[in-house]
Amino acid sequence: MFSSRLEWNAHPNPLTTLLAEKRRQGVSILDLTESNPTRAALDYPRKELLTALADPRALRYDPDPRGLLSAREAVSEYYAQRSVEVPALRILLTASTSEAYSYLFKLLTDPGDEILVPRPSYPLFDYLAAMESVAARQYPLRYDGVWHIDLPALASAITPRTRAIVVVNPNNPTGSYLKRAEWERLQTFGLPILSDEVFSDFAFSPDPQRITTLADQNSVLTFSMSGLSKIAGLPQMKLGWIVASGPDHEAALDGLEWIADTYLSVSTMVQLALPRILSASAPVQEQIRIQTAANLQHLLKCTPGSACRCLTIEGGWYAVLEVPRIRTEEDWVLQLLAEKDVLVQPGFFYDFESEAFLVLSLLTPPAIFAEGLGRILESTASRS
Asked: Global pTM?
Protein backbone atom coordinates (compact mmCIF):
# COMPACT_ATOMS: atom_id res chain seq x y z
CA MET A 1 0.00 0.00 0.00
CA PHE A 2 2.82 2.41 0.89
CA SER A 3 6.15 3.17 -0.79
CA SER A 4 9.03 0.76 -0.20
CA ARG A 5 11.07 3.83 0.75
CA LEU A 6 9.23 3.75 4.08
CA GLU A 7 10.05 0.13 4.93
CA TRP A 8 12.13 0.95 8.00
CA ASN A 9 12.12 -0.84 11.32
CA ALA A 10 10.02 1.38 13.56
CA HIS A 11 9.98 -0.97 16.54
CA PRO A 12 11.52 0.49 19.72
CA ASN A 13 15.01 -0.82 20.42
CA PRO A 14 15.96 -2.09 23.91
CA LEU A 15 17.52 1.26 24.85
CA THR A 16 14.45 3.35 23.98
CA THR A 17 12.22 0.79 25.71
CA LEU A 18 14.26 0.92 28.90
CA LEU A 19 14.44 4.71 28.78
CA ALA A 20 10.68 4.99 28.39
CA GLU A 21 10.17 2.72 31.40
CA LYS A 22 12.63 4.71 33.51
CA ARG A 23 10.85 7.94 32.67
CA ARG A 24 7.47 6.37 33.34
CA GLN A 25 8.74 5.53 36.81
CA GLY A 26 9.90 9.12 37.32
CA VAL A 27 13.59 8.24 37.53
CA SER A 28 15.95 11.20 37.16
CA ILE A 29 18.15 10.43 34.15
CA LEU A 30 21.59 11.94 33.57
CA ASP A 31 21.22 12.54 29.83
CA LEU A 32 24.64 12.69 28.15
CA THR A 33 23.06 12.63 24.69
CA GLU A 34 21.59 16.15 24.81
CA SER A 35 22.10 17.81 21.43
CA ASN A 36 19.30 20.38 21.63
CA PRO A 37 20.95 23.73 22.46
CA THR A 38 17.65 25.15 23.71
CA ARG A 39 17.79 22.54 26.50
CA ALA A 40 21.45 23.07 27.36
CA ALA A 41 21.04 25.84 29.97
CA LEU A 42 22.20 28.58 27.59
CA ASP A 43 21.30 32.23 28.08
CA TYR A 44 19.69 33.47 24.85
CA PRO A 45 19.31 37.17 23.93
CA ARG A 46 15.55 36.91 24.30
CA LYS A 47 14.65 40.53 23.61
CA GLU A 48 16.73 40.78 20.44
CA LEU A 49 15.40 37.51 19.04
CA LEU A 50 11.75 38.14 19.83
CA THR A 51 11.93 41.68 18.47
CA ALA A 52 13.52 40.40 15.26
CA LEU A 53 10.63 37.98 14.76
CA ALA A 54 8.06 40.78 15.11
CA ASP A 55 8.87 42.42 11.77
CA PRO A 56 5.55 43.65 10.27
CA ARG A 57 6.85 42.92 6.77
CA ALA A 58 6.18 39.24 7.55
CA LEU A 59 2.48 39.96 6.98
CA ARG A 60 3.16 40.25 3.25
CA TYR A 61 3.98 37.15 1.18
CA ASP A 62 6.44 37.91 -1.59
CA PRO A 63 8.44 34.70 -2.05
CA ASP A 64 11.80 34.28 -3.74
CA PRO A 65 12.76 30.63 -4.45
CA ARG A 66 16.41 31.33 -3.59
CA GLY A 67 15.42 33.21 -0.42
CA LEU A 68 14.94 36.88 0.28
CA LEU A 69 17.91 38.95 -0.83
CA SER A 70 18.27 40.56 2.61
CA ALA A 71 18.55 37.11 4.19
CA ARG A 72 21.08 35.89 1.64
CA GLU A 73 23.11 39.05 2.16
CA ALA A 74 23.12 38.28 5.89
CA VAL A 75 24.55 34.84 5.14
CA SER A 76 27.13 36.48 2.87
CA GLU A 77 28.11 38.75 5.77
CA TYR A 78 28.41 35.71 8.06
CA TYR A 79 31.10 34.34 5.72
CA ALA A 80 32.74 37.75 5.28
CA GLN A 81 33.29 37.91 9.04
CA ARG A 82 35.26 34.68 8.62
CA SER A 83 37.32 36.16 5.76
CA VAL A 84 35.49 34.12 3.13
CA GLU A 85 33.95 35.89 0.14
CA VAL A 86 30.55 34.43 -0.73
CA PRO A 87 28.30 36.65 -2.89
CA ALA A 88 24.58 36.45 -2.12
CA LEU A 89 23.91 35.25 -5.67
CA ARG A 90 25.68 31.94 -4.82
CA ILE A 91 23.42 31.28 -1.82
CA LEU A 92 20.10 29.44 -1.72
CA LEU A 93 18.08 29.19 1.49
CA THR A 94 16.42 26.00 2.76
CA ALA A 95 14.37 25.12 5.83
CA SER A 96 17.19 22.94 7.20
CA THR A 97 20.36 21.11 6.28
CA SER A 98 18.30 17.94 5.88
CA GLU A 99 16.19 19.73 3.28
CA ALA A 100 19.38 20.97 1.64
CA TYR A 101 20.49 17.35 1.24
CA SER A 102 17.14 16.44 -0.30
CA TYR A 103 17.42 19.31 -2.80
CA LEU A 104 20.97 18.32 -3.73
CA PHE A 105 20.08 14.65 -4.13
CA LYS A 106 17.22 15.70 -6.40
CA LEU A 107 19.60 17.92 -8.37
CA LEU A 108 22.44 15.44 -8.81
CA THR A 109 20.90 11.98 -8.92
CA ASP A 110 18.42 9.75 -10.66
CA PRO A 111 16.76 6.77 -8.92
CA GLY A 112 19.33 4.02 -8.41
CA ASP A 113 22.31 6.37 -8.32
CA GLU A 114 24.74 6.46 -5.40
CA ILE A 115 26.11 9.04 -2.99
CA LEU A 116 29.29 8.43 -0.98
CA VAL A 117 28.98 9.24 2.73
CA PRO A 118 31.48 8.96 5.60
CA ARG A 119 31.53 6.20 8.22
CA PRO A 120 31.24 6.77 11.14
CA SER A 121 28.89 9.71 10.86
CA TYR A 122 25.44 11.04 11.71
CA PRO A 123 22.89 8.25 11.12
CA LEU A 124 20.61 10.15 8.75
CA PHE A 125 22.12 9.64 5.31
CA ASP A 126 20.51 6.27 4.62
CA TYR A 127 17.08 7.74 5.28
CA LEU A 128 17.65 10.92 3.29
CA ALA A 129 19.02 8.92 0.36
CA ALA A 130 16.22 6.36 0.47
CA MET A 131 13.63 9.13 0.34
CA GLU A 132 15.15 10.15 -3.00
CA SER A 133 15.47 6.53 -4.24
CA VAL A 134 19.25 6.64 -4.21
CA ALA A 135 21.80 4.57 -2.28
CA ALA A 136 24.18 5.88 0.37
CA ARG A 137 27.48 4.01 0.00
CA GLN A 138 29.97 4.44 2.82
CA TYR A 139 33.64 5.32 2.78
CA PRO A 140 35.61 4.89 6.03
CA LEU A 141 37.27 7.32 8.37
CA ARG A 142 40.26 5.76 10.14
CA TYR A 143 41.69 6.49 13.58
CA ASP A 144 45.40 6.21 14.36
CA GLY A 145 45.57 8.81 17.11
CA VAL A 146 43.77 11.26 14.84
CA TRP A 147 40.90 10.77 12.42
CA HIS A 148 41.45 10.91 8.67
CA ILE A 149 39.69 9.90 5.46
CA ASP A 150 40.75 6.52 4.07
CA LEU A 151 41.30 7.92 0.60
CA PRO A 152 42.17 4.60 -1.13
CA ALA A 153 38.98 3.07 0.28
CA LEU A 154 37.00 6.09 -0.88
CA ALA A 155 38.46 5.75 -4.37
CA SER A 156 37.54 2.07 -4.49
CA ALA A 157 33.96 2.86 -3.41
CA ILE A 158 33.36 4.99 -6.52
CA THR A 159 31.26 3.26 -9.16
CA PRO A 160 29.79 4.41 -12.49
CA ARG A 161 26.63 5.39 -10.58
CA THR A 162 28.40 7.56 -7.99
CA ARG A 163 27.16 11.13 -8.30
CA ALA A 164 28.66 12.99 -5.33
CA ILE A 165 30.81 12.72 -2.20
CA VAL A 166 29.51 13.93 1.15
CA VAL A 167 32.02 15.45 3.58
CA VAL A 168 30.90 16.32 7.11
CA ASN A 169 33.28 19.03 8.26
CA PRO A 170 33.80 18.63 11.16
CA ASN A 171 32.41 15.15 11.32
CA ASN A 172 29.68 14.16 13.74
CA PRO A 173 30.57 12.46 16.07
CA THR A 174 34.33 12.16 15.50
CA GLY A 175 34.89 15.94 15.50
CA SER A 176 37.50 15.66 12.75
CA TYR A 177 37.96 18.44 10.18
CA LEU A 178 38.85 18.11 6.53
CA LYS A 179 42.60 18.62 5.97
CA ARG A 180 44.23 20.34 3.02
CA ALA A 181 45.92 17.18 1.78
CA GLU A 182 42.58 15.35 1.86
CA TRP A 183 40.91 18.16 -0.05
CA GLU A 184 43.62 18.06 -2.72
CA ARG A 185 42.92 14.37 -3.26
CA LEU A 186 39.12 14.76 -3.20
CA GLN A 187 39.31 17.22 -6.08
CA THR A 188 40.97 14.62 -8.32
CA PHE A 189 37.90 12.37 -8.31
CA GLY A 190 35.97 14.88 -10.41
CA LEU A 191 32.73 14.43 -8.46
CA PRO A 192 30.59 17.13 -6.85
CA ILE A 193 31.32 17.63 -3.15
CA LEU A 194 28.56 18.12 -0.58
CA SER A 195 30.17 19.75 2.46
CA ASP A 196 28.12 19.71 5.69
CA GLU A 197 29.64 22.50 7.79
CA VAL A 198 27.06 22.97 10.56
CA PHE A 199 29.67 22.52 13.34
CA SER A 200 32.42 24.44 11.56
CA ASP A 201 32.44 27.35 14.01
CA PHE A 202 33.14 25.11 17.00
CA ALA A 203 36.82 24.16 16.83
CA PHE A 204 38.67 23.53 20.09
CA SER A 205 42.05 24.73 18.80
CA PRO A 206 43.55 26.11 15.58
CA ASP A 207 45.20 23.93 12.95
CA PRO A 208 46.84 25.39 9.82
CA GLN A 209 46.18 22.14 7.93
CA ARG A 210 42.44 22.40 8.53
CA ILE A 211 39.83 23.60 6.04
CA THR A 212 36.79 25.00 7.83
CA THR A 213 34.66 25.72 4.77
CA LEU A 214 34.62 24.91 1.06
CA ALA A 215 32.34 27.85 0.28
CA ASP A 216 35.15 29.67 -1.53
CA GLN A 217 36.59 26.70 -3.43
CA ASN A 218 36.43 26.76 -7.24
CA SER A 219 38.13 23.65 -8.58
CA VAL A 220 35.15 21.26 -8.52
CA LEU A 221 31.41 21.75 -8.18
CA THR A 222 30.90 22.14 -4.44
CA PHE A 223 27.91 22.72 -2.19
CA SER A 224 28.56 24.01 1.33
CA MET A 225 25.71 23.69 3.83
CA SER A 226 25.05 25.26 7.20
CA GLY A 227 22.26 26.98 9.14
CA LEU A 228 20.86 28.43 12.33
CA SER A 229 20.49 25.13 14.16
CA LYS A 230 24.13 25.12 15.26
CA ILE A 231 25.42 28.59 14.33
CA ALA A 232 22.83 30.37 16.46
CA GLY A 233 21.77 27.41 18.60
CA LEU A 234 18.25 27.77 17.23
CA PRO A 235 17.09 24.56 15.52
CA GLN A 236 13.45 25.62 15.84
CA MET A 237 13.97 28.60 13.52
CA LYS A 238 14.23 26.17 10.60
CA LEU A 239 16.59 28.01 8.29
CA GLY A 240 19.62 26.65 6.51
CA TRP A 241 21.46 27.35 3.29
CA ILE A 242 23.47 26.01 0.40
CA VAL A 243 26.46 27.85 -1.05
CA ALA A 244 27.29 26.69 -4.58
CA SER A 245 30.81 27.16 -5.94
CA GLY A 246 33.09 25.84 -8.64
CA PRO A 247 32.44 24.90 -12.28
CA ASP A 248 28.79 24.90 -13.35
CA HIS A 249 27.65 26.44 -10.07
CA GLU A 250 25.35 28.87 -11.91
CA ALA A 251 23.56 26.04 -13.72
CA ALA A 252 23.37 24.15 -10.43
CA LEU A 253 21.75 27.12 -8.72
CA ASP A 254 19.23 27.40 -11.55
CA GLY A 255 18.29 23.78 -10.95
CA LEU A 256 18.09 24.29 -7.20
CA GLU A 257 15.88 27.30 -7.75
CA TRP A 258 13.41 25.15 -9.72
CA ILE A 259 13.37 22.63 -6.87
CA ALA A 260 13.00 25.29 -4.19
CA ASP A 261 10.19 26.97 -6.13
CA THR A 262 8.24 23.72 -5.91
CA TYR A 263 8.27 23.82 -2.10
CA LEU A 264 8.85 27.43 -0.97
CA SER A 265 9.47 26.05 2.51
CA VAL A 266 11.48 28.79 4.21
CA SER A 267 9.46 31.02 6.54
CA THR A 268 9.26 34.69 5.55
CA MET A 269 9.33 35.65 9.23
CA VAL A 270 12.65 33.89 9.84
CA GLN A 271 14.17 35.22 6.63
CA LEU A 272 13.35 38.80 7.63
CA ALA A 273 14.75 38.17 11.10
CA LEU A 274 17.93 36.47 9.85
CA PRO A 275 20.25 39.53 9.84
CA ARG A 276 19.42 40.27 13.47
CA ILE A 277 19.50 36.60 14.49
CA LEU A 278 22.98 36.17 13.06
CA SER A 279 24.20 39.40 14.64
CA ALA A 280 22.90 38.15 18.01
CA SER A 281 24.46 34.70 17.67
CA ALA A 282 27.95 35.54 18.94
CA PRO A 283 27.18 35.32 22.68
CA VAL A 284 25.29 32.06 22.18
CA GLN A 285 28.21 30.58 20.24
CA GLU A 286 30.60 31.70 22.96
CA GLN A 287 28.53 29.99 25.64
CA ILE A 288 28.50 26.80 23.57
CA ARG A 289 32.27 26.98 23.10
CA ILE A 290 32.84 27.50 26.82
CA GLN A 291 30.47 24.69 27.80
CA THR A 292 31.76 22.13 25.30
CA ALA A 293 35.39 23.01 26.06
CA ALA A 294 34.83 22.71 29.81
CA ASN A 295 33.22 19.29 29.41
CA LEU A 296 36.00 18.14 27.09
CA GLN A 297 38.68 19.29 29.53
CA HIS A 298 36.93 17.46 32.34
CA LEU A 299 36.78 14.33 30.19
CA LEU A 300 40.48 14.58 29.31
CA LYS A 301 41.36 15.13 32.97
CA CYS A 302 39.36 12.17 34.29
CA THR A 303 40.03 9.43 31.74
CA PRO A 304 43.83 8.97 32.01
CA GLY A 305 44.49 6.04 34.32
CA SER A 306 40.93 4.80 33.90
CA ALA A 307 39.60 1.89 31.87
CA CYS A 308 38.40 4.36 29.21
CA ARG A 309 40.07 6.41 26.50
CA CYS A 310 38.84 9.64 24.92
CA LEU A 311 39.57 9.70 21.20
CA THR A 312 41.09 12.85 19.75
CA ILE A 313 38.47 15.47 18.94
CA GLU A 314 39.06 18.70 17.01
CA GLY A 315 35.66 20.35 17.16
CA GLY A 316 31.91 19.95 17.27
CA TRP A 317 29.66 19.04 20.18
CA TYR A 318 30.50 15.37 20.78
CA ALA A 319 33.18 13.14 22.25
CA VAL A 320 33.90 9.50 21.57
CA LEU A 321 34.82 7.40 24.60
CA GLU A 322 36.40 3.98 24.10
CA VAL A 323 35.34 1.55 26.83
CA PRO A 324 36.57 -1.97 27.66
CA ARG A 325 35.58 -4.54 25.05
CA ILE A 326 34.45 -7.05 27.65
CA ARG A 327 30.85 -6.58 26.52
CA THR A 328 29.00 -5.13 23.57
CA GLU A 329 28.16 -1.47 23.22
CA GLU A 330 24.50 -2.36 23.58
CA ASP A 331 25.21 -4.09 26.88
CA TRP A 332 27.24 -1.09 28.08
CA VAL A 333 24.54 1.48 27.33
CA LEU A 334 21.78 -0.71 28.76
CA GLN A 335 23.72 -1.38 31.96
CA LEU A 336 24.65 2.27 32.40
CA LEU A 337 21.01 3.25 32.07
CA ALA A 338 19.66 0.38 34.17
CA GLU A 339 22.18 0.58 37.01
CA LYS A 340 23.53 4.14 36.91
CA ASP A 341 20.65 6.11 35.35
CA VAL A 342 23.07 7.48 32.73
CA LEU A 343 22.02 7.79 29.10
CA VAL A 344 24.69 7.64 26.38
CA GLN A 345 24.70 6.57 22.74
CA PRO A 346 26.47 3.45 21.45
CA GLY A 347 28.98 3.76 18.65
CA PHE A 348 26.91 1.53 16.37
CA PHE A 349 24.30 4.29 16.17
CA TYR A 350 26.93 6.09 14.09
CA ASP A 351 28.16 2.99 12.23
CA PHE A 352 31.50 2.60 14.01
CA GLU A 353 33.18 -0.39 12.41
CA SER A 354 34.35 -1.93 15.69
CA GLU A 355 33.49 -1.85 19.39
CA ALA A 356 33.30 -0.61 22.04
CA PHE A 357 32.64 3.11 21.85
CA LEU A 358 30.22 5.45 23.57
CA VAL A 359 29.23 8.85 22.19
CA LEU A 360 28.76 11.68 24.71
CA SER A 361 27.35 15.13 24.04
CA LEU A 362 29.68 17.90 25.17
CA LEU A 363 26.70 20.25 25.03
CA THR A 364 25.36 18.66 28.21
CA PRO A 365 25.20 21.08 31.18
CA PRO A 366 28.54 20.65 33.00
CA ALA A 367 27.17 19.47 36.34
CA ILE A 368 25.19 16.71 34.64
CA PHE A 369 28.13 15.81 32.40
CA ALA A 370 30.54 15.53 35.33
CA GLU A 371 28.20 13.38 37.40
CA GLY A 372 27.32 11.17 34.45
CA LEU A 373 30.97 10.71 33.46
CA GLY A 374 31.83 9.82 37.04
CA ARG A 375 29.24 7.06 37.00
CA ILE A 376 30.52 5.77 33.65
CA LEU A 377 34.10 5.59 34.93
CA GLU A 378 32.92 3.92 38.11
CA SER A 379 30.99 1.31 36.16
CA THR A 380 33.79 0.57 33.69
CA ALA A 381 36.35 0.31 36.50
CA SER A 382 34.28 -2.24 38.37
CA ARG A 383 33.85 -4.40 35.27
CA SER A 384 37.24 -4.11 33.56
From this structure: 0.96
- Cis omega (within 30 of 0) for bond into 247: no
Bond before 356 cis per omega within 30 degrees? yes
- Please state, in angstroms and rounded to a whole number, the distance separating the CA atoms of residues 218 and 239: 25
Asked, for residue 50, whether it belongs to a domain, the answer is no
Domain boundary among 245, 278, 311: 278
Q: CATH number of the domain that 26 lies in?
A: 3.90.1150.10
Peptide bond preceding 14: is omega within 30 degrees of 0, i.e. cis?
no
In the chain, the number of structural domains is 2
Phi, psi (rounded to 5 degrees) for 116: -90, 130
CA dist., res. 59 & res. 337, Å (int) = 48
Residues 134 and 209 in one domain: yes
CA torsion sign for 225, 230, 232, 233 is: positive
Q: Which residue positions in the chain have pLDDT lower than 50? A: none
Per-residue model confidence (pLDDT) at position 208: 96
CA pair distance 245, 129, nearest whole angstrom:
23
